[in-house]
Amino acid sequence: MNHFKKIERMALFMRRKILDISYLSSHAAHLGGGLSMVEIMATLYAHILKFDNKNPHWNQRDRFILSKGHGVLGYFSALLAAGFISEEKYNTYLKNESDLIAHPIMNLDLGIESSNGSLGQGLSMGIGIAYAAKKNEDLQYRAFVLLGDGECNEGSVWEAGMLAPQLKLDNLIAIVDYNKLQSDMSPSSEIINFGNLAAKFENFGWEVYDIDGHDITQLVQALEAKHIEGKPKMIVANTIKGKGVSFMENNNEWHHNILTKSKYELAITELEG
């Protein structure tokens, strides 16, 4: 099986598991933003990231930071598919005393690199992690950060966006899940209009790719593209919130909602169609 098929299979598995655990938990969940990031996460965990799920503390592992912390459904399902989290552990999501709650809590044993929830902080964290590797010749890892477009309203994102090229962090890869819907409100452009998001990062000195975030070929090409020395990489991944379930796609009611039995069955039938 080539890597494209492997990524496709992981993405389908992840979507099914996102729906399963959202229904089983009986709680409102951030479905829309979890589904929009599936191909990004599947590409990272099936093909791009360097890790050892049997040795999650391996010091040469690539580091992944989920800056859009509410997207845990797309994160935990990837960790399940990659062998960091067992099915039994995954099914404890949102249960009392579970390690898996509505936002990630740092737990290297489960492959979770950082605690996230308050938006706008992950890119700065990624800079620190990437810079540490640059300062230590024995460390050859890369730092990956996934942001949401809504959190790019935060000033800390733009401070970090200017700093990373200044530090010549060509071991830093940031991805924006650009689904263009934010929280439970209007389109992102009606809250703060970024204009050309890719051009902004390019002007700051990033190596920038503006792609379809559901096209695995484009994701692989952008992630595998040879780095320009001294430049961090930014991938603006244009996505669809709720991707894969027609009644959730571009429907902000599913930013955070409860998946009822009837809606769950409808979604599964469509997914497995």
How are the strands of the biggest sheet laid out side by side?
1-2-3-5-4
Rg is 18 Å
Q: Give me the number of helical elements.
A: 11
From the spread of the alpha carbons, the general shape counts as globular
Strand content: 5-15%
User: Structural class, please?
Assistant: alpha/beta
Under the CATH scheme, which class? Alpha Beta
Helix content: 40-55%
Q: Predict the CATH topology.
A: Rossmann fold
**Strand count, sense and closure of the main sheet?**
5 strands, parallel
Structural domains: how many: 1
The tally of strands reads 5
Reported CATH architecture: 3-Layer(aba) Sandwich
Describe this entry's structure for a reader.
This protein is an alpha/beta fold and 273 residues long. It has a single domain, classed as Rossmann fold (3-Layer(aba) Sandwich), CATH 3.40.50.970. It contains eleven helices and five strands; from the N terminus they run H-H-H-E-H-H-H-E-H-E-H-H-E-H-E-H. A five-stranded parallel beta sheet has the order 1-2-3-5-4, with helices on both faces.
